[in-house]
Amino acid sequence: MDLAFIYLDNAATTWPKPDAVYSFMTDFYRRTGVSPGRSGFDLALEAGALLDNLRKRLTRFFGGDEDAPERLCFGYNATDALNLILSGLLSEGDHVITTNLEHNAVLRPIHHLVRDQNVEADFVPFNGAGFVEPDEIARALRPNTRLVIVNHGSNVIGTVQPLAEIGRLCREKGVLFAADTAQTAGLVPIHMRQMNIDVLAFTGHKALLGSTGIGGLCVRKHVHIRHTRAGGTGVRSAEPYHLDEYPWRMEYGTPNMVGVAALWAGQDWLDQNGIANIHAREMTLARRLVEGLRQVQGVRLYCCDSLDNHLSTVSMNIVGVEAADVGVMLDVDHHIATRTGLHCAPLVHRQLGTLEIGGAVRFSIGAFNTEEHIDAAIRAVADIARWSAQRKPKAAAAVP
Predict the structure, then answer these.
(1) Using CA atoms, how far apart are residues 193 and 168, in angstroms rounded to an integer?
(2) Are 161 and 81 within one domain?
(3) Domain count along the chain
(4) Is residue 1 assigned to a domain?
């Protein structure tokens, strides 16, 4: 990545992708850009084979039921998958438990279900270090609790939640457990069977290093998700109702084969480089960033006193400067791309006390960032903080 432009918004979308991903996407679509499962000619069969093989590959990757790879279903992104999960599992009178760490991809569907379908919901807070304690989930359980759904890795503060402990609790209590892995898939090992995860949502355009516009869900064999949509499948077209069988039960219309190709190539790159190695390198850079920012007077960091069980996502504010203004200065004056605001996760900011001041500035490190990028970001923040200290402080810009 050219130092003239430094991209530190990988929690939104990883960029750039490995060259092999771009090449495979382009080559596959030029050569085999047809619909799978709709016809019997050779190109359609080749496209269908890639789709089916990716289901098997991702089922293994997520530790799902390998004898049921058809339960790895594709959609637009994690938000799409989470809507299918929530609307397909919850009914009137059911109770759902989630957390203050959730993205709006979980919060908004739940709020709609509460308002429109009389579903009940509890939102469990995180502790001072940014982690949800399983005991807090246990205390929120009710006789009518149907589902617990947890964000594996926070897109604001980067903390990685103890899914195995929460999953064990849910299994003991007979409650379904769903995981939003939008931030962790491709960085943190996930094994659905070992962690007692019943259904998992993922997106392709982040650490899985695929393209935008593809994601999905992996559903264990014992889980029954209702239909909430209907449409074409290319299979048994005379049926008047949408098919009950997986994957068509959760898939609608023509699949995104460019995205499928990108995910396949992304899996190749992850296999070659190792997700543990990628994550360790990113965390080395995150520690460098946090240590540097701690030395800057006027900087407030959130939930990163320790970076154990963390992603390389760091949020901060500068006293006297609104987060949005810091983002503009980083971009215009220093050519550094970050994400400012509420990050589609308002309950995190409400609990942190940053909701009223417009959120925070988020740095999120990716596989192609370097020490030079991190050092440049630290210098840029220090420059903005010095500028702020020389002005009259604004009461409205106080940082909690």
Answers:
(1) 11
(2) yes
(3) 2
(4) no
